Amino acid sequence: MKYDPFIVKRRSLLKGGLLILVWLGAAAFSFPFKIREKLSRLPYVGRFFKEESPPEDLKKKTLQTLEEAYWEGAPFYTPDLWEKARKYYDKGLKAFSEEKYSHARFYFEKAIDYAKKARQETLKQQQELKDKAEKRFAKIVSRWKEVRINPRERLKWEVRLRYLRELLEAKRYKEFFKVADDLEKELARLPKKERAPEGPSPSTTN
After folding, report:
1. How far does Cα 58 stand from its chain's mean position?
2. Are residues 18 and 73 in the same domain?
3. What is the total count of domains within the chain?
4. Which of 113, 115, 91, 114 is nearest to 103 (CA)?
5. pLDDT digits (tens, 9 = 90+) for 94-146
């Protein structure tokens, strides 16, 4: 069977062209930025060296999302999720500095995802603690109204209860529960008020 020299030659050219395209594609990601920038201006070849735009907006959004989670208390309430978010952000910054923008986008998006999860879980835990603290505070106030307190100590107790409420409103739950424990122990040692008899006293005469 005879081979057509034109067909053979064309196949060789196609193979050679494909190899060149592969080489150019690989080179586009390995050349320094300045060289890629100059090559991108060349006709035909320039399309393989077009510079990918740096994800500046995504970088800012990632930092903002991390800050929101941080100020809600994510490092304290959800340390595992927070640590993952922070590590992905650091990887994104490294890839960004190395001009690996596709990698940077991936890492920034992962950081945003974990930061949002950390913030949501933090808010959930805070709400649970708030509900628990509200019930605890109401229980302490109820107990305080039932016990007999020396008039000279009454102002002192009012100040302590006000401080407990301020801890609750400030979301300082760790301190709140510690103070609440101390107050409950002291209230438990105080005697209850004597209740007034209900209705008229029974008559002793016929």
Report:
1. 17
2. no
3. 2
4. 91
5. 999 998 998 999 999 999 999 999 999 999 999 999 999 999 999 999 999 99
